[in-house]
């Protein structure tokens, strides 16, 4: 249970910081200029991972992503029951973070901050435009493959990066976001997509929830490929 709670807290922080930056990036809070760019959102996600890696890494391994947990399980590093528990609590953490973002956006005088949003996201939910199903699926598949491969490689007990693993993983996530944000908003993390999609539907936009299958299937498939590739790369056989 301690590991599950650590995963819940870690995913909460990742979703709150990452999606929170995406939510407030486009509005600049009126004319005060506090909005951040795509690069800022990318670093928000990456730095959240770095912070949590050195906070809960020694407790749960800091997966904070069902795709990573799936890849670790497929690599034979954890049992199925433990992996399932991780995934459930990761989704719970993302839902709680999304609830906090929803509260921050919609409470206060005259509708809260939602009154100054135009066409920008108010939940940080992932989606793709009509006709872009194939590129969206390929992007989420490939970038999750790369990201999870970095995780498996840097955390390997024999060939890993040791204490620098958290930094390498966080920076890898920054790179993934820089490239993938224009395509899907970047998920590579089913929990991070599920939480915001639920609250987007609550406020009337059910497109993200109707497309959520892609942000579950593509990352999981990418993670599975990562596990297979890392097994080959880390094998002692030529």
Summarize the helices and strands and which ones pair or pack.
Elements: H1 2-25, H2 38-60, H3 66-74, H4 80-106, H5 133-154, H6 165-184, H7 190-202, H8 207-210, H9 214-234
Helix pairs in contact: 1-2, 1-4, 1-7, 2-6, 3-4, 3-5, 3-9, 4-7, 5-6, 5-9, 7-9
Task: Report on the architecture of this protein.
The protein is mainly α and about 240 residues long. About 70% of the residues lie in helices and about 0% in strands. The chain has 9 helices and no strands. It is globular, with a radius of gyration of 17 Å. Mean pLDDT is about 90; it is low at about 25-35.
Which strand-content bin applies to the residues? under 5%
Secondary-structure element sequence? Answer: HHHHHHHHH
Beta strand count: 0
From the helix content, strand content and strand pairing, which structural class follows?
mainly alpha
- The oligomeric state is single chain
Radius of gyration: 17 Å
Broad shape: globular
CA distance, first residue to last residue: 40 Å
Major sheet characteristics: none
- Overall mean confidence score, pLDDT: 89
Helical residue percent band: 55-70%
Tally of helical segments: 9
Regions with little confidence, pLDDT below 50 for 5+ residues: 27-33
């Amino acid at each position: 249970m301690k590991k599950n709670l650590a995963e819940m807290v870690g995913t909460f922080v990742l979703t709150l910081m990452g999606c929170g930056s995406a939510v407030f990036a486009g509005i600049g809070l009126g004319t005060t200029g506090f909005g951040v760019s795509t690069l800022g959102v990318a670093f928000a996600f990456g730095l959240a991972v770095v912070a949590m890696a050195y906070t809960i890494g020694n407790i749960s391994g800091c997966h904070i992503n069902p795709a990573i947990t799936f890849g670790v399980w497929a690599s034979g590093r954890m049992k199925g029951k433990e992996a399932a528990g991780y995934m459930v609590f990761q989704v719970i953490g993302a839902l709680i973070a999304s609830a906090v973002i929803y509260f921050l956006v919609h409470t206060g005088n005259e509708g809260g901050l939602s009154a100054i949003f135009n066409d920008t996201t108010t939940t940080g939910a992932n989606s793709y435009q009509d006709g872009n199903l194939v590129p969206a699926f390929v992007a989420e598949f490939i970038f999750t493959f790369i990201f999870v491969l970095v995780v498996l490689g840097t955390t390997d007990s024999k060939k890993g990066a040791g204490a620098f693993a958290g930094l390498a993983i966080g920076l890898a996530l920054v790179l993934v976001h820089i490239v993938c944000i224009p395509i899907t908003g970047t998920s590579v993390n089913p929990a991070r997509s599920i939480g915001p999609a639920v609250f987007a539907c609550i406020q009337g936009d059910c497109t993200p929830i109707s497309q959520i299958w892609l942000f579950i299937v593509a990352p999981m498939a990418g993670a599975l490929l990562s596990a297979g590739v890392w097994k080959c790369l880390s094998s002692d056989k030529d």
